[in-house]
Amino acid sequence: MPNLTFRKLHPQFAAEAGPIELRSVTDRAMLDAIRAGMDEYAVLVFRDQPFADDEQLQFAMRFDGVLHSKTGASVVKKNRFGNEALTDISNVDEDGKILAADDRRRAYSLGNRLWHTDASFQDPPGRYSMLSAKVVPPVAADTEFADMRAAYDGLDADLKARLEGLSVHHSIAYSRSVLGFEFSDEEHEKLKGAVHPLVRTNPNTGRRSLYLASHASRILDWPLPEGRLLLRDLMEHATQPQFVYRHSWREGDLVIWDNRSTMHRGRPFADTTHRRELRRVTTLDVEFRPG
Asked: What is the assigned CATH class of domain 5-284?
């Protein structure tokens, strides 16, 4: 088994991992070593990973079990791959043509530019996301990640105490509506959202983190304006430069991140001019017993 090494990409978190080809990894010890790296760094970058779609799905199941398939995108558009567990993070249609500026599918995907946490609007929520770069444009089309553990550590003791026991409703319909995206009554019915703690604890390390996203619509049992102001202030705090790693994509990259410990967002680029294709698989935060 090759040695797995980690090279830090940011003072707080994120690392480039290698040398390894993930699609051929079945050894339990290596999978455990990757999970240990996730606990430490929360974001891992693997270069030169030539995944076919089925190989990416199979690796995700080997790595962490149950796949997330109740995506928000499935409510508003048909999955062009025929598998809702394989999320299309691309700006092209089923024929590979770049989406027009006024295409409803593009309008929905603009929500990926908001700071968010994958599948926080579901119960159980997302645990690990794995994003594979197939086509990278010749311009910067980066993804930013925020370390929510370091952000929590940076709060003062009084605010930490104030956050204890608070729960937040997460809704992807809420985050998209902020951008002016309109849902039908039927779509709203399918996107009711879920409730999660505002502060979460990694069961492996005991480290605490804020659990935030643009999907966070309100704090339960708080007056709406006051709750939204607190969520806004926490988002501003958590996305300061000292907590953020910016990833510049190369074709063949696979980036894995822990949704319990991070937020992320796509940075804008000329998406009506340049083609970009990424595939994401997200696992659910359920008990996982390695086989």
From this structure: alpha beta
